Structures are given as structure tokens and as C-alpha cells.
Amino acid sequence: MTAVRPAPVARVRGARLSGVDVARAVALLGMMAAHVGGVTDHLDWADPSSWSAVVNGRSSSLFAVLAGVSVGLVSGRTTPPGPPEIGRVRARLAVRAVLIVVIGVALMLLGTPVYVILPTYGALFLLVLPALRWPRWAVFTAAGACALLSAPFAVAIVPLYADTGSFEQQLGLVYPVVTFLTYVLVGLGVARSGLEGRRTQVALLASGIVVATVAYVVGTLLAPIPADAGNAFPGVPYVSEGSTAGQAVAQVFLSPRDHSSSIVDVLGTAGVAIAVIGLCSLLVDGRARTVQRIAFPLVAIGSMPLSIYALHLVVIAAVPGLPQGLATWWWFAVGAAVFAMLWQRFLGRGPLERLVSHIAGTVGR
């Protein structure tokens, strides 16, 4: 078969954006590091030995922002369709959402020591459906409102999970819906901005860096992470015993701790996600064939995120007592790349992606 050189992605409207796939791979590899890499619990920029903790919180938030980007890409990119096509798009996304929840619950039943994000991920697909035809400014405004409500909502739902086990806590507590709806809306707004354009890519990179830097600096100065934050539960704010009212309010709303659901945490992680998407798009999309070849392992992983995510949890469940550490993460990363490249080369779309797409596609027919 004669190879045909693809046209530069940035010049083809509707072409697959390889930079987004690379960003998805970064998110997936980051979550693998958090699950099997033996990373430290908290990030301290003054302590290089803790820098591996950068994957905590930021990988799952990048994954959620990219969920919003995916929703935006399949619903018209910068120009969503009107009726009746938008109705079919919403119906297909609703079916995808239900299937993702089912797959997520099945993975939870494996009993791995990992908080599974997919049930929340699927629910977010449903919640974002009304926003598909909103103007970009309205999408970002809604994301800002969710960021402000994130901490109060996370605190409010805690009593609902009293005396529950790990299974129930994965359904909305570890990944609070309002917090992660912020990320999905941000991703939808990013997709509506036109990821193909170089100016947009540079703007995303620059704005993401600025937002994340300002957020973390403010949070570190006004609400330093308590020494006993190791007792904190992921997804909800944490206040140390003996804190004053002012310190408690600062920890709830301004803590830079990962998975704290504070405004600083949400804005900081969203900023990191935006910067990663902008950087990956800038480095890969529309570049020469050599760059595409170098990026192919990451593109392959990112083209089947649902399959790779599920597969790595199946492996964790199948190998009890899996050692935590850098070597284990490398095995997972290389295994994911080899699997994804071979599958894409010979079979095309990822297995779960193909299944979900086939079932959802019946809605259109």
C-alpha cells in the first residue's frame, strides 16, 4: 500500500488533532504514575524528592478537561450545529455517558486500590449536554461559577457519605461533581476556541501558565498546606484541629493542596491542564512527518484513552501486591505504548472506543 503524506493538521478543518491525543497520553501516564509509581503524597517545590507528586490531582483534572475538549470536538468544534443535528449529537453523547458509567462501575468491582474516575466522567457528559450550543463566554462563565461553588459543594456532600465504604465514596465524593464539571466546561470552552490555530495554542499555553502560577502562589502564601494534611481525604477540603476561623476559611477556599476542591486547587489544576493542551498542540499539530513519527507512541495511547485506562486497572487487579515504584511505572508506560501502537496499526480504533462508538452510533441511524 502506498503511503500518503497527510496534510498538516492545522490546515485541515475536521482533521484529528494529534496534540490532543498527546495530552490525553500525558494524563493517562500521569494517572498510572499516581497509581503504581510510588510518588510522594505532597508536592514541595523546595524539595526535589517530592516533585513526582506533580501528577497527583493534575492528571485527573487534565483527563477531565480533555473530556470537555472531546465533547467540543464531536459537537462541531468552534461551530456547534443547530436542530435537528444537535439533538442527535446530544443523544449519542448521552448513550456514551451511560456506557462509560457502566464500564466504570465494572472496573470498580475489580476491587483495585484505585479511585475510578469513569462513573463521574460519564455523569459529567450528561451534565454538560445543555451547554453544547452556549457561546464560548457563557461556557467559561459557567466554569467560573462552578469553581467558586466547588469547595462549598464538596463540604456539603460529606455528611451524605458517612459510614460508606470505598465503593460508594468513588461515586461523587472523591471526584466531586461540581469540581470536575468546572474542568469539563473549561475543556468545552477550549475546544470552542479553535485548537487548530497557532495563536490559540500559544494563548492557551501562556494563559494556563499565568493562571496556575498566580493561583498556587496566592494559595501557598495565604493557606499553606498543614503539616498533618496527610490525614486529608481526597476530593474534600481539610482543616487541622485547633485552626482559627480565618485559617479554616483559608484552607477551605484557598488551599493549594491537590484534590482539595478549593478555588486555588481548581484554578491551578485547570491552568496546568490548559497549558499542557496548548503545549502539546503547539509541538505536534501541523508539524513535519518526523515529529509525527516521534510522537506516534503518545498519539496511539491518547487515541484510545478509555481502553488504556481500563486495561491498566485490569493489570493492577490481576497482579496482587504489585510493587510501587518508577520501574513499575515504566513497565506500564511501555506496555501501554506497545499495545496501543500495535492495536492501532492492525485494528484501528481502540477496543472500548469502538464498542462505545458502535452502540452510540445506532442513535444517529
SSE map:
Elements: H1 18-36, H2 58-74, H3 85-108, H4 118-127, H5 136-157, H6 166-169, H7 177-192, H8 198-222, H9 245-254, H10 263-284, H11 289-303, H12 305-318, H13 326-347, H14 351-364
Helix pairs in contact: 1-2, 1-10, 1-11, 1-12, 1-13, 2-7, 2-10, 3-4, 3-12, 3-14, 4-7, 5-7, 8-10, 11-13
Question: Care to describe what's here?
Answer:
This protein is mostly helical and 365 residues long. 64% of the residues lie in helices and 0% in strands. It has 14 helices and no strands. Residues 1-13 have low confidence and may be disordered.
Main features:
365 residues, mainly alpha, 14 helices, globular
Order of helices and strands: HHHHHHHHHHHHHH
- Strand percentage lies at under 5%
Number of strands: 0
Q: Which structural class do the helices and strands define?
A: mainly alpha
Mean pLDDT: 90
pLDDT below 50 for ≥5 consecutive residues: which ranges? 1-13
Radius of gyration using CA atoms only: 20 Å
The oligomeric status of these chains comes to single chain
Report the sheet with the most strands, covering strand number, pairing sense and barrel closure: none
N→C terminal distance: 32 Å
Shape: globular
Q: Number of helical segments? A: 14
Residues in helix, %: 55-70%
